[in-house]
Amino acid sequence: MSSNRKIVVIATGGTIAGVADSPTDHTGYLAGQLDISHLVAAIPGLTQAAGALQLEQLAQLDSKDMDAATLARLAQRVAELLDEEAVQGVVITHGTDTLEETAYFLHALLAPAKPVVVTCAMRPATALSADGPQNLLDAVTVARHPGSKGVLAVCAGAVHGPLDVYKAHPYRLDAFSSGDAGPLAFVEAGRLRVLRAWPEGHAQRQLLALLARPWPKVAIVTSHAEATAWMVPALVAAGAQGMVVAATGNGTVHAALEKALLEAQQQGLQVRRAGRCAQGVLVEGASDAVPFFAAYPGLSPVKVRMALVLELMGSIGSLGQASVARG
Ligand code: SIN
Q1: Buried b (16+ CB within 10 A) or exposed e, 248-259
Q2: pLDDT tens-digit map of 169-223
């Protein structure tokens, strides 16, 4: 799998760099403790097998605490590396909890023609059978694979695309799913079995220059039994510029919440709809009376939130903050 071109491994923290007091402890650990040189050193022969590796420690956090500043630095750095001829691909070590958001964010911004492989672990590095070393090795294998490209998520031998991937299980090693779509590929004994085409997209690199500014405030509200309207004006009063409604079933919203959202939309709030179901795509039909809030078909609420952040960032960049803030 070796090549003259290098793979750059960027570490951001997560359970893959986590440390527990006991090797049998899978839950009471601290994420984001070990630096990337420790993680690579735990994989015998990786540097020989993988060819040139460049290691960078960009952050050291539990991904539940992922923030705009870290995402901005990550996107900038990945963009720089993708532009280097000597770089074949990038591997990012990341916590599992918000991995799908980072993967989608990088896909939406960069739509890379080289592989950008995000990987992780469900057990800390100190566990008796830690999964991080194999996942990291698999991620490098994917980044080295001829023709692989796009933002990819690698966990437990499966390779997922940025639009479909989501964390489906809080504990199992095989924690990620691509739902109906299924994985893009499997890594089997160091080789890739490719099932579907690599991800395509339209890069929005013009937004890179805007990432250092304060990000638009976008909240997620969930439609549920007994949903009420009160949180919509409260969020708007707190400065929300956009809202994603996690809708029931095939995109329906509780009447009370829908009324509040429609009123706020008329005042200039940007509202988008996403399905609350973990799998599938909202199916638009002729009988849909209300195309009330535009949907991003097939994207989960957290990814639609990221999409709307980028959408608003683009409008703010071209129109000026005030015009987007309240319509
Ligand atoms: C995190 O997301 O950083 C902690 C949990 C994990 O990586 O599994």
Answers
A1: beebbbbeebbe
A2: 999 999 999 999 999 999 999 999 999 999 999 999 999 999 999 999 999 999 9
Q: Given the DSSP bridges, would you call strands 87-93 and 150-155 parallel, antiparallel or unpaired?
A: unpaired
H/E stretch holding 39? helix 36-41
* Cα atoms in the 13 Å half-sphere on the side-chain side of 127: 22
Tokens of 58: 């960009």
Its pTM stands at 0.94
Q: Does domain 6-194 have CATH number 2.40.160.20?
A: no
Question: Which of 14, 40, 9 lies closest to 122, judged by CA?
Answer: 14
What is 214-312's CATH number, 3.40.50.40, 3.40.640.10, 3.30.1330.40, 1.20.140.10? 3.40.50.40
Q: Ligand 1: which of 39, 60, 62, 101 to mutate, judged by most atoms within 8 Å of the beta carbon? A: 62
Q: Is 15 a catalytic residue?
A: yes
Q: Assess whether the C-beta atom of 311 lies below 6 angstroms from ligand 1.
A: no
Give the residue range(s) of CATH 3.40.50.1170 domains in the chain: 6-194
For the chain, the residue count is 327
Tokens for 219, please give them.
């909240």
Residue 15 near ligand 1, beta carbon < 6 Å: yes
Rounded Cα–Cα distance for residues 141 and 160 (Å) = 14
Q: In the block, which residue shows the tokens 């089997």? A: 188
Query: For 56-83, what is each residue's pLDDT tens digit?
Result: 999 999 999 999 999 999 999 999 999 9
* Contact assessment for residue 35 and residue 60, using Cβ atoms and an 8 Å cutoff: yes
Within the chain, all domains assigned CATH 3.40.50.40 are found at: 214-312
Kind of pairing between the strands at 166-167 and 158-160 = unpaired
Report angle CA 109, 113, 118 to the nearest 5 degrees. Answer: 65
- Establish whether residue 93 lines the binding site of ligand 1, counting it when its CB lies within 6 angstroms of any ligand atom: no
Angle at 200 (CA atoms; ends 166, 103), nearest 5 degrees:
30
How many angstroms does the Cα of residue 89 sit away from the middle of ligand 1?
A: 23
